[in-house]
Write a structure and sequence with these properties.
Blueprint (H helix, E strand, L loop, with lengths): L1 E5 L2 E4 L4 E8 L8 E6 L5 E7 L6 E3 L7 E6 L4 E6 L8 E7 L14 E2 L3 E6 L1
Parallel strand pairs: 2-11
Antiparallel strand pairs: 1-3, 3-8, 4-5, 4-9, 5-6, 7-8, 9-10, 9-11
């Protein structure tokens, strides 16, 4: 199983980026998929998650109203649309997939991880 994240880059505060994460090796249409981020010197934090069908989404309070998670099961891909970006959103963003279909909260275990993509927001 491989998760390939892309779409990161350098953007000014207030700008937007769209991250993509393509999974290969197996189909994850029933699995919860999520995004996490890790800023320099800090622990990795939950950002957003989405159910297998896409009907349910979950967000960290810090990104609610600015970020949108979505998925395309035909492409085995999850997306993170990030709007109104702030300098504090600067981090390496990781996509992840749970082994099952239950969300179970922001601290629950994810079984597969991508390599990360850097997002830098300048002030």
């Amino acid at each position: 199983v491989q998760l390939q994240a892309s779409g990161g880059g350098l953007v000014q505060a207030g700008g937007s980026l769209r991250l993509s994460c393509a999974a290969s090796g197996r189909t994850f249409s029933s699995n919860v998929m999520g995004w996490f981020r890790q800023a320099p010197g800090k622990e990795r934090d939950f950002v957003a998650a989405i159910s297998g069908s896409g009907a349910s989404t979950y967000y960290a309070d810090s990104v609610k109203g600015r970020f949108t998670i979505s998925r395309d099961n035909a492409k085995n891909t999850v997306y993170l649309q990030m709007n109104s970006l702030k300098p504090e959103d600067t981090a390496v963003y990781y996509c992840a997939v749970k082994g099952g279909s239950i969300y179970a909260g922001p601290d629950s275990v994810y079984d597969y991880w991508g390599q990360g993509t850097q997002v830098t927001v300048s002030s």
